[in-house]
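pasting input
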Amino acid sequence: MKVGIIGVGLIGGSLALSAREHISDVEIYGSNRSEINLKKSMELGLIDHKLEDRLIKQMDVILLAIPVDIAMEHLVDLLDEVNDNALIMDFGSTKGAICQKVALHSKRGQFLATHPIAGTEYSGPAAALPDLFQDKIQILCETQKTRPDLLEWAQNWFRKIGMNLREMDPVEHDQHITYVSHLSHVSSYMLGKTVMEKEKDQSAIFDMAGSGFSSTVRLAKSSPHMWIPIFKQNKENISETLSQYINNLNQFKNLLEADKFDELHQQILEINNIRQILEGINRTNNNK
Amino acid sequence: MKVGIIGVGLIGGSLALSAREHISDVEIYGSNRSEINLKKSMELGLIDHKLEDRLIKQMDVILLAIPVDIAMEHLVDLLDEVNDNALIMDFGSTKGAICQKVALHSKRGQFLATHPIAGTEYSGPAAALPDLFQDKIQILCETQKTRPDLLEWAQNWFRKIGMNLREMDPVEHDQHITYVSHLSHVSSYMLGKTVMEKEKDQSAIFDMAGSGFSSTVRLAKSSPHMWIPIFKQNKENISETLSQYINNLNQFKNLLEADKFDELHQQILEINNIRQILEGINRTNNNK
C-alpha cells in the first residue's frame, strides 16, 4: 500500500511512524515545503521516497498534514487528481471551512476530515513521535459523506494506532475547539508578549520565573505558520470566545480593585473544579 | 538543632525533608491549621513533634510556610516570643508588606524574608517533595537587615539544599514576580472559568481538550487559601500588569477582526523568542 504524506512535520512524521508500524507492506512517500526538512525526514526513515506530483495518482492514501490554509488550497486539486479508490484525509485544527470547500466535489466520498487531539509545541520531522496518537482523541467529521469502505479502513487504522474515535459536526467542532485549544494559544501568546515587553526594562525578571510560568506560556512557542491560518479560518469563534475571556479578566480586575476578596475566593473555589475535569482528560488521553 | 515549621504543607513539608537531610541532629516541630494534615505530616515522618505555642522559645529556627496574610499576622508575635539567637524565615510569594511590617521591630535582625521559586499546583503535606528546591532560585530580601551569623547559616542551608541565591529589594520583587507568577495564575484561573462557563451547555467539550489546554489551565487548580492573600497584598502590581495583559488581548482581537494577519504573524514570530528565554529558565532551574 502506498501512503503519501503532504507535510512531513510533527503530525505528518508521527503519522508516518504510525503507518510504518500498523499498515502492512507500506511504502511511504512524503513532501515538504522545505527541502532541508524533506531530506531530514528521509534520514530519519520517516519516508521512503519523495512524493512527486506525478506520483499522486499512484497513492492509495494521502494524508494532508500542512497548515489549514494550504490544505484547503490543495484539497480540490488532489481530489481531482487521485485514482478512484484513494482516500484523502486532513488533520487540521479547523474543520468547517475544509468540509464546506469540498461539499459538492464529485469525489467527496474519497475525503475524510479529521482532527487528532495530539501535538506538542514543536514542529518539523525531528519532532515526530511514534506514540503521539496513542490513547488520544481523534475527531472525525461528516463520516456519512465518506465512502463506507474508505471510512472503515481509516477507522481501523486509527484504532490500531490506539486512538479513541469521536464523530462531530464540523461547525460544532470549530466552536468547541476554540475553548479548549485556540483560546489557550491566544492566552499564552499574549502572556508571553506582556512579560517580554516588561523584560525589555528588566532582564533579571526571568530569573524569577518558575514552572508555573513555563507551563502557561509553553504554547507561546508554537509556530505562526500553523496558527495564523487557524486564527484566520476560525476568526468569528475565536473573537467571541476571546471577548468572554477578556470580560472575565476585567471582572476579576474590578473585584480585585474593589477589595471583593470573598467573592474572588468563592469564584476560585468553583474554578478549582477544573481539577476533576483535567483528571478526566488525562484519564481519557492516557487510558489509565 | 530544633526547627519549627509553621504550616507543614507543600512548601513546609518539603522544607522539613530538606532540613532532615541537611541539618545535623535536627529535631523537627510542626504545626498546621488542620489537625488531619498535622497527623498526616507525622505519619509521613515530615515532623517529629507538634509545635505547641509554649515550645516556640526553644526553637533555633522557625520557618513560616503559611498563606502570606497569616504569616504577616503571626510574625510580630513570633519575633517577640523567640529566644535571642533564633532565626525566623518566611517563604511567601509577596515580600513588600512583610518586610515593612517588621521594619522597626527590635528583633528585625532575627528575620529573613525569602521566596523560593519552587512549587506545584498541589497543597498539603502529602504534596511535599524531597527535591522541590534542588536547582531552584531562592530570593532573599533585605539581607543587610538580618544578623550576619543568622544570615550565613540560612545561606549555607539553602546552598546545601541546592538552591541558587539571589538578593532583591522587596518592592522590586513584588513588581517582577507579578509578571512571571501572579499574572500566570490570574490568566489560568480566568481561562478555566471561561471554559467551564461554556461547558455548562456542552459537556462533551472537554473530550476535545489536549495537553495544551491542560498546560495553560494547570495553575487554575491552585488553592484560593494561598492565592487570595497574595492577590490582596500585591493588588496594585497585579491590577497594573493585568491591564497590560488585557490591552494585549484586545489588540490581538482588533487585529484579528481587521484581518491583519501579517501583523499578527510578525507579532507571534517575536513572541516565539520566549523559547530561548524558557530554555534559559530550565537551564537555571535544572542546572543542565
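fyi Chain B is about 50% helix and 10% strand.
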